[in-house]
Amino acid sequence: MKISYNNFGIEFEIDDIKSFFSEIKENIIIPKNSKNTIGIIIAIDTENDKEKSRIENDIINELKLKLTNHDRLEDFKIIKLPQNISHQIYSDERANSILIKSKSHFILWGKLFERKIEGKENYIIKLNGGVCHAPISKYDSQLFAQEFSEILPKLTFPTDDELIGFEFTEKWIRYVIKYIIGKAAFLSNDISFSEELSCELENDLLQIKENVPIIESIKEKIKILISQIITIRISINYNIFSITRDRTYILKNKDTLDKIEKIDCNNYPANLNRSIYYYFNNEIDKGIEELKKLSSIKDTTWRYNLCFLLFYRNNGGDIDSALEIFRKVPYGITTGNVYNEVEIFIGETLNEFPEKLQFYFLRGLINYKIKNDYSLAKKDFDTFIEKNNEEKMKILKNLATKYVEQIKNL
Length: 410
Hints:
This protein has about 400 residues and is of the alpha/beta class. The chain has 3 domains: about 1-25, no CATH class; about 30-205; about 300-410, Serine Threonine Protein Phosphatase 5, Tetratricopeptide repeat (Alpha Horseshoe). Helices cover about 60% and strands about 10% of the residues. The protein has 18 helices and 7 strands. It has helices spanning about 15-30, 50-70, 85, 90-100, 140-150, 160-185, 190-205, 215-245, 250, 255-265, 270-280, 285-290, 300-310, 320-325, 340-350, 360-370, 375-385, 395-410, and strands at about 1-5, 10-15, 40-45, 75-80, 105-115, 120-130, 155-160. Strands 4-3-5-6-7 form a 5-stranded mixed sheet, with helices on both faces. Helix 2 (about 50-70) links the parallel strand 3 (about 40-45) and strand 4. Helix 2 crosses helix 6 (about 160-185), helix 12 runs antiparallel to helix 13 and helix 15 (about 340-350) packs antiparallel against helix 16. The longest helix is centred in the middle third of the chain and has 32 residues, at about 215-245. It is elongated and about 90 Å long. It starts with a strand and ends with a helix. About 30% of the residues are buried.
C-alpha cells in the first residue's frame, strides 16, 4: 500500500512506515548500557516459560552474582533482553545491530529448547556471540570470530540432570564471557584489564579437575592470551630500559619470565629477555645456554646476543665460538637496529670494565662487516691492536691487523 501527497511530492510505502515506527519502538525497548561499564547482553530465546525461568534464575542471575563479585564490580552490567527481542535475533548482523543500539560490548545470543534424542528428553543450548572492540585487521577479526565457534559449540544435557546441566552451562558461559572480554580488551590495547581478567579466569579454570573438551579449549586459549600479554609486558619493560638504561626494568621481569616459561618455553622474545636478565644478574653461562636453544630461529638478534656473551665470558675465552656465531649473522633476518643496541651494550661494558679489550674488536667487526662504517671500524681495530698484548687473543689481533689493511685499501 502506498500513501501519496502530491502537493509536496511525498510518497510512502506503508511497509516503510511500519519499519520506521518499529525501529523507534525497538530503540526504546532495548535496555541501554550505563556509561563507563562493560555491557553484557544475554539474549537467549526459549520455547516455554519453564525454560525462560531456568535461564533467568540459573544462568543470568548467577552470572550477575559471579561477574560482578569482582574488584572491578562497577565495570560489568548484565543486560537481559525481553523475550520478544531475543526471539528476533537470528543472525550475526542482527545481533551486532542490537549490540550497537544498547551501547554494550558483548552479546551472547541463541536458543534453549527441549528435544528427544534416542527417546530421551534433552535440553539443547545453541549459542553465538558478538563483541565490540577497537578497530583491528580483517585477519585478526576473522580469527576472533573463529574463536567464538570453538568455545560456543552446541551443548546438550538430559532434562533428568538439568540441575547439573544448568550449573555447568552458567560456569561455561561465565568463562566464555571473561575470555572474550579479556581478548577484546587485549585487541583494544587495554593490556592491564586484559591481564586482570585473564589471570582471574586462569585461576577459575584451575579449580576444574574434570577433562571437559569445551573447558580444555578455553584453558588452552587463555594460556596463549596470557603468553601474549606477558610478551607485551616484557617488551614494554625492555623499551623503557632502552630509553633510561635503568637495569631494574630488566631485573623486574624475573617473575614474569618464570611464568611464561611454564606456559610457553619457546617464546622467542622471552628467551631473548631472559638472556639479558642473566647477563645483568651475572649468570653468563645461563644466558649462553638460553640463547643456544634458539639455533633454529632465523632472526639474528639471538646470534648478536650470544656473540656478546661469548666475548664477555672468561674475558674473551670463547673467541672461536663467538666468531663462528658471528659468521652466520649475515645469512639471517635482522629486525630493528639490533647491531646498534649491541654497540650500546659494548660501550657500557667498556666503560664499566675497560680491561675487556675484546669488545673493541667486536664493535669494530660490527662496523666493518655489518654497518660498513669503515672509519669507526678502523678506529676500534687500531685501539684493540695498540692495547692488547694477551696471548689468548692473538687470533683476534691477527684478524684486526688484517681488517685494518683491507680498510686502508678500500
